[in-house]
Amino acid sequence: MDAITRITRRSFLAxxxxxxxxxxLTLAGGHFSSAxxxxxxxxxxxxxxxxxxxxxxPLHMIATIESNVADSLGAPSCLERxxxxxxxxxxxxxxxxxxxxxGPFGTYPQRNKQIEYKHNSYTRYKGDLYAGPNLTIWDRYLxxxxxxxxxxxxxxxxxxxxxxxxxxxSSSEHAEARLVRRLFDLTExxxxxxxxxxxxxxxxxxxxxxxxxxxxxYTSLESCAQCSGMMSxxxxxxxxxxxxxxxxxxxxxxxxNLARKTAKxxxxxxxxxxADRVGIKYFTQLNDSYQRFLSTPPQTFFxxxxxxxxxxxxxxxxxxxxxEAMDIFKKGGDEIAVMELEHPNVACxxxxxxxxxxxxxxKCFFEYADIQGFRGSPHKL
Length: 381
Ligand SMILES: [Zn+2]
Prior knowledge:
Blueprint (H helix, E strand, L loop, with lengths): L2 H21 L2 E3 L2 E3 L16 H4 L5 H4 L4 H4 L5 H20 L19 E5 L2 E4 L21 E5 L5 E6 L12 H12 L14 H4 L11 E6 L3 H9 L4 E6 L7 H8 L12 E4 L7 H14 L4 E4 L6 E3 L3 H4 L3 H13 L19 H19 L8
Parallel strand pairs: 7-8, 8-9
Antiparallel strand pairs: 1-2, 3-4, 5-6, 5-7, 10-11
Bound molecules: zinc ion.
């Protein structure tokens, strides 16, 4: 044990002893245990707030959404509407699939279907498998194959975004975060210094802040702490996700349970909805496939052409480059073209669009995105 390790370990033990003593906790087997310990609710918390009411509850209760809450998703027709937009999201992700995480050249054993050509020892992989001849082919990896889409209460799609971590050399350009920023930006688009013309009435009447209480966000993965936080601050209503993310450690559920609207508090966090709750069978397929990816013996995900670089990875973003993941997104995306609605003439909100209108709109949106949308790039980067 070196000096730094000793100091760090000593500091840790001293700190944990203080915490354990102060809060009546004991350290058992390397983990804190609250057995036989009373932990009074701190005085700064309102006694009737969700966090105060959950203070003594075990983690599994706080990290789980009660089934009766999830059941309030609505009528079967509303589930069908969610399903339409989940499938559209899958189609968008498949359309803009780019698995070149470490560049287009080299060898990715799990991406054989994405090979563009082989020449002697060189193999080149396509970064944009479906670009037409007149469109830019995005071989450079811009971000992960993770996207999010916003739909308003009537069923109209507002916009979509992809993860752009690589493009911005950042680890926080997540799809949901970019989408929330984009939605707020959109509300300002028509504000120009000439807008009010002869008076400033137009601006005076404008709300000081907007919220997204009627917005549903559809996204690839269970949202992380950053994106859950942004959606919570934006008052997003609900977030439907296509796959669990172990890196999210159920933070969306925890925030939802601890920030629920009460008589005295308007704070809230979006309801996280796993896509299997709205009838998306690909949710299970993606989770199972990722578990297989994790459980297979470590294998090389990428080898550079000169064999100097080898990457073995079990990250979910690498999984989302593989043929197996891509095929699942393709199946989901293809389903939208042949989808037969059970509730075509029903709207999920008063005055909203019927499911048939939503389905037609979704197909129309894809045509736009295919040519103009790219990975959310024509609008503000
Ligand atoms: Zn995130």
